[in-house]
Amino acid sequence: MKNSILRAMAFSAAVCVSMTSCAEKKKTSSDNSTSIASAISDIPDMASELLEGSYKLINYKTIDEFDNIDRIFSLNEGGYIISSYVASADKNDLFKANSDFSEINALTLNAPEEVSAADESYCDISVSPDGEISALYTLMDYHGHELPDGYDENFDYESFYENATESKLLCFYNSDGSLISSHDFDDSEFVNEDDYCYLNSYISAGGGKVLLAYSDGTVILTDGSTVEKLPVIEENSEKEYISLVRTTDGSVAVSYVYYIDGDYNKRAQCIKYIDIDNKSYGDTIYSCDTAGSYNLDMVSQGYDDYVLIGSDYKNLLGIKADGTTEEILNWSDADTQPLYVLYAGNDEFYCWDYRNNSSLQMMKLVPRDPSEAANTQVITLGTMYDSHSYEVNEFNRSQDKYRIKVVNYSERYTAEHGELDPEADKDDWQKRDAEMLKYMQMDIISGNAPDMIVAYDINSVRLLGEKGILADLYTFMENDSDINRDTVLPNLLSALESSDGKLYCLAPGFDLRTLAVKRKFFDRENWTVDDMIELFDHSNAEHLYDVDTKANMLRTFLEGQSDLIDIEKGTCNFDSPDFINILKFCDRFVLEENTPDKMTESK
Fold first, then answer.
1. Cα separations in angstroms, 242 against 197, 284, 294, 296
2. What would the DSSP string read from start to end of 430-481?
3. Considering Cα of 443, then 444, then 446, then 450, what sign does the dihedral take?
4. Among 201, 377, 520, 554, which is 20 to 30 Å from 67 by CA?
5. The pLDDT of residue 597
6. Over residues 463-483, mean pLDDT
7. pTM (two decimals)
8. Distance in Å from the first CA to the final CA of the chain
9. Which of 120, 128, 136 is nearest to 171 (CA)?
């Protein structure tokens, strides 16, 4: 066992990207050298055909006044009031912008003295279409006590927060920030921390009133002095979320998702008008209770014939007055994840992205001209899960020579079998994975194989490679100046190689699991398992075996002991004296690690 080295780097190839073989496919390069292009199948649908009627994301302008948009409110007079966070000042501020964001000016609220006198305060802002600003302040009083600058183990944090008192103040302002009225506001009868019932949404109703929605389905209308309660929505159903939104005509609606009959796998969504005058709910705008469907998220004010717009994860949808929905754009075709959008006119949308700490990048979604992609080749990427959208979108936006189209086999599974219950046991999830793998295998057998695949089992990748289905990536590296054997960690390539010396996959990332020791205790570059155990045997450290568990220690050893399993011969060696000694060592550790709460405990 002295020759058995405990590896410092234990490699885990959890995700592998492979390219299907180009043996039966035409080469697109002018010579006989192997290239990425020659491995791409001749797909009749070019990108211009796939992207017809789609949108693209373009940069619009950089905004230096703030770096984050919390909420944005459209005004009847044109332009917007923006609630934002300014990192440099570590506070929320208001700004007023014209309709194209070419003019942006700070907007200061003349808050009453109670706000500045509080030890700590924060507020929710809402603005009615006519420009009336309402601010719901939460004020904290710590009664002369202060938190230490950093963590202080001698400070009684529990007592500090138990003795703090909280109050709320509801204020109304004109669009120039001048104060109209201020009211002490108490909503404690609607908040219940034990039942996890909190304020979820807040919106200005105009005329010196606001609507507030709580997580149990309660909605109230208040001017700060009086409170009028609307009926509880879906009273006997547990809510997933509830929010208040503005419709195109300026009315207010409530959007909520709830579980049908207490079944967490059956969700329904409903959006209803709120009849403010009668303190009741009006007509249903949208309703969906289809099992397995995505909720309509990021619901906001619509435009033209759309009462509201929202995203169902795959598409931006418009909701019409009759409750029907219409696809406006597909997020994947626009090379982006779902975004909050603001209609900019001319079938364009403003949207924003946070890319640095000092400014905000305002972007636009604009209709795409299909002819721009007339010479773009489509590459299909087969995956079991839609977990690579961000990277695919970044690649597609970076150039126009190739376009990756994702073939997501989990979508095919859901279409045929529905969503799997999140509470399903491990066997059911494994059956689901096996079924999705079968979809991919059938595509390969039928000649519809994706150009590249994302696999989650390196042994399956090697098996496909040995059958001639996957291309040897080394052949591409030999003709690539950017990605070759010299630019990839040699240990990584070695770990991924097949027994025939070919490379059928590359891992986008890998994990390092190692044990480290101070040089004064062990002054050599590498150590064997015997060396390490001997060091533990002679150590007088107080917490030697209770800072990690038996399972974690065994996992560390297993990831560094590749000689325990011979994949090629299909044999294993778990009864050797060396491995038995490892098991005995791991048994010294605790079953469960006792991790103290730094606020209340010490170890």
1. 12, 15, 16, 12
2. HHHHHHHHHHHHHHHHTT---SEEEES-HHHHHHHHHTT-B--HHHHHTT-S
3. positive
4. 201
5. 56
6. 89
7. 0.75
8. 36
9. 136
